[in-house]
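Students often ask why we bother encoding 3D structure as a string. The short answer is that it lets us treat folding as translation between two languages. Here is a chain of 121 residues written in the first language.
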Amino acid sequence: QVQLVESGGGLVQPGGSLRLSCAASGFTLDAYAIGWFRQAPGKEREGVSCISSRGGGTSYTDSVKGRFTINRDNAKNTVYLQMNSLKPEDTAVYYCAADRLSYCSDSPAYWGQGTQVTVSS
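And here it is in the second language, the structure alphabet:
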């Protein structure tokens, strides 16, 4: 059964950190580009970060550059999103998605169920 499961969300104060995990089962994550997306209430979904397949590069939306880091652990078949210096505007449901292409597109093959991140004092 092909599945992506996110974890690591929660409530954090501004300036704090969280690490999101995206664990895959039923397929090998390294063969896919993995993207992190987020959707805040009343807003459209936006791409946050992407790591290309098979050791390729990474990319970030401008608003998270220098604060977020995406990386893979192939032994655990998991992709992480380390989020530092969190701001209230980072509050959203975060989703990971796996794309059969070598880069992150708007139509990935698989989606996780999402994990809530809330940044508030």
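Translate back mentally: The CA atoms of residues 51 and 58 lie 4 Å apart. Keep this in mind for the problem set.
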